[in-house]
What we know:
Layout: H1 16-26, H2 35-47, E1 53-56, H3 59-69, E2 77-80, H4 87-94, E3 98-101, H5 113-119, E4 124-130, H6 139-149, E5 152-156, E6 164-165, E7 168-169, E8 176-180, E9 193-196, H7 200-210, E10 214-215, E11 232-233, H8 244-254, H9 257-275, E12 281-282, E13 290-291, E14 297-301, H10 306-315, H11 331-334, H12 344-352, E15 353-356, H13 364-378
Amino acid sequence: MSTAEFLPYGRQSIVEDDxxxxxxxxxxxxxxxxPAVTAFESDIAAVTxxxxxxxxxxxxAALHVAYAAAGIGSGDEVVCAPMTFVATAATAALLGAKVxxxxxSPETGNLLPDAAAAAVTSRTKVIAAVDYAxxxxxxxxxxxxxxxxxxxxxxxxxxxxxGTWQGRPVGSLADLTTFSFFxxxxxxxxxxxxxxxxxxxxxxxxxxxxNHGLVRxxxxxxxxxxxxxxxxxxxxxxxxxxxxxxxxxxxxxxKRLPWFVSRRAxxxxxxxxxxxxxxxxxxxxxxxxxxxxxxxxxxxxxxxxRRALYEYLREHGIGVQVNYIPAYWHPVFADLGYRRxxxxxxxxxxxxxxxxxxxxxxxxxxVDRVIELVRAFFR
Length: 379
Ligand SMILES: Cc1ncc(COP(=O)(O)O)c(C=O)c1O
């Protein structure tokens, strides 16, 4: 991108092959529920180390489907990381669950296994962790906490497709993993998402919830002799089907995922090299065992100067963002009695966080311009 333009914090990277893939579907017979959906789901499974996936219409739909597959309902508790987009908590609340926020590391923004362990009760059914900025959570420790509580681990991997933890790919680490394919994410289908899950029974429930809860297998029908047309709803579901048109875009984008991940890593490293000696900021941390798929560059601005730097960079045409206010700060949670101070690590992280522009087609010279502006601000 040219240095004169406003730099967004994120944007899609679309090439002619993506456009051709979409156009080919538009010329064919299946706009939705066709072969491009199956192909996209197998292409996602190739990234998750073979764990099967269900394509859905957004990352939010993926979370809703995953919680529904886990059987979340009223009376259940979901332990949730607060350093996330509100959807991670909202979808559980919509199903009637009580959301119990557990604190995150003030360095990575990721759910702390000890905090999750302290938050579980006999009613906990899911622990929902978020791979903040693309850095995978400590899935091994969180899985142990979940197993000991008789709960499932849900990994919200909206930021982290293509990352690994202890050599294992995101998508293979938790009981349920959700992805988002929004344009700013590591790959895009415009709107879209997926749930990856190794358990055949959870996967079947996810597939059915995506499609109104419709059951077609003859051996499961309550009234199998009704006729060849017959299908039944045993549990309520919704229409969260991702159309073939968008699945074709997703399969085409997945071919470039290795490049997206490596280009994002290179830009991330360039920011860190250019800012490492600046007093007044803390750089993103990579824990041993993590190979992040960096969706964000979450700089932490110390000494209460985050807002001033945000305004300075915006005035200079840099589309910085803050990801995120702690989820329980949203009035919808405040009105339910959640109070500030609940998760001090998340609040400390939020107070400092500033996401610098990061997307694959960002030029090195643009990164250098942002670095220079940050340095000038602190001089
Ligand atoms: C951590 C996280 N979870 C869930 C979502 C929801 O994804 P979508 O926008 O595709 O519904 C997002 C996207 O903003 C996100 O960042």
